[in-house]
Amino acid sequence: MRDADLVVMGFVRGAFGVRGWVKVQADTENTDSLFDYPQWWLKQKNGEWKAFTFEDGAIQPKTLVVKFEEVDDRDVAEAMRGMQVAIPRELLPKPPADEYYWIDLIGLEVVNRENIVLGKVTDLMETGANDVLVVRGETDERLIPFVSDYIVDVDLAAKRITVDWGLDY
What are phi and psi of 32, to 5 degrees? Predict the structure, then answer.
């Protein structure tokens, strides 16, 4: 499986118990949404992706605990610490109109209405009221609310976001 075919949804925090369970930090809107997928892909230490079959799971405070069919030993589970967890992009539901997966926004160029490049999206933040784009330029960083007042257009094909945002904001 190639990186481009997968969407990273979290990472393994370490082992949980002695029977091969792992703790997973999910970077998803709904923490337990990963349980909907029967197969998870984990990025191995050598950079290759390997499929694991989801057997069971539970929600713990701030984390998931997961049992994979292929893992029955604490040492093996502990060796998985730090591995990224991904799901094939083709299995993700298509987002509604004017909604985007964060992973699809990271790396996009951000320009304002005057076509001045402000930088690239390096991250997004959830603030409660709305999401915020973290845009890094050559010499500065801008935080732009991801709301219709400021977002003019998102063109995934062109890898560009047009914003109503001045250089001096």
Answer: -85, 5
